[in-house]
Design brief:
disordered C terminus, mainly alpha
Length: 189
Amino acid sequence: MKNMKNRMIASVLSLATVFANFTMVSADAAAFAMGDIDMDGVITGHDTAMLSRSILDDSYTLTDEQLKLADYNEDGTVDQADADSLYEAQIYHLGDVDLSGDGTPDSLRLNDGSEIVSYVTKSAAGIAPDWNQTQVNLGDLDLDGAITLIDANYALKQYAFMSAGFRDVFDSAEPAYYHNSFSNPSEFA
């Protein structure tokens, strides 16, 4: 009898957890600031990256709620102008996992790459890293849904390029505000 009671309590708690997560996932876009596409409560480089990738990569799509938040200039069209404006408004740059910056690429430091490596190492060892959702979002530089050594590599490469005097990797005629490739540093001169 006691075992059955414990199973019932566990079932109710499981259902409550599923319901709580469901309501968070289906949150109404009106509850978030315009531009907070990932709905984590802060406008960051992750929001800019999500918008940019959805514009440039047909296989990467946003939900209806995210599309409402993506129309940053509220002109009825989600396009590069929204991504550019959002990039200027972001509080933290993509990769700024220590949350020390001001939204500019210069805020990405060597420490950020090291923190991403530490996150991956702790996760692999079964130790829960103590990052909040904003840090997790900023650590996923390639937007593949996982923080890996590839993300650390991107953060460290961008830091190295900026330290060597190359321009920001996102500063181009049609910037992609997410890391899908780094090739030759001379392309960023």
